[in-house]
Design a protein that fits this description.
By secondary structure, the protein is mainly alpha-helical. It has a single domain (14-85), classed as Serine Threonine Protein Phosphatase 5, Tetratricopeptide repeat (Alpha Horseshoe), CATH 1.25.40. Helix content is 70%, strand content 0%. It contains 4 helices and no strands. Helix 1 (14-24) packs antiparallel against helix 2 and helix 2 runs antiparallel to helix 3 (46-58). The longest helix is centred in the last third of the chain and has 24 residues, at 62-85.
Length: 88
Amino acid sequence: MPSEFGPPTPPKPTLELLGDILLGAKKPDQAAQAYAAALARAPERTLSLQGLMAAQQARGDTAAAGATRARIARYVRTAAENTVSGRP
């Protein structure tokens, strides 16, 4: 019986992890780019959105951070409504 190699999916997308590292290194512009690239692959991934919002706040872009916060709220609200109504 063949054995599986590695986990079926990485616990954290590589670009999101890169964003986390860059944000921790006080490089919010580069972190925002990494999170944006991660979101291009998984558009509504909440942790990538939260990272993008943190990078936007760190670089003082409160308008963009507010827009990202609203995007997170819309996604969470829609996901909750779909769960309650039984929709996927």
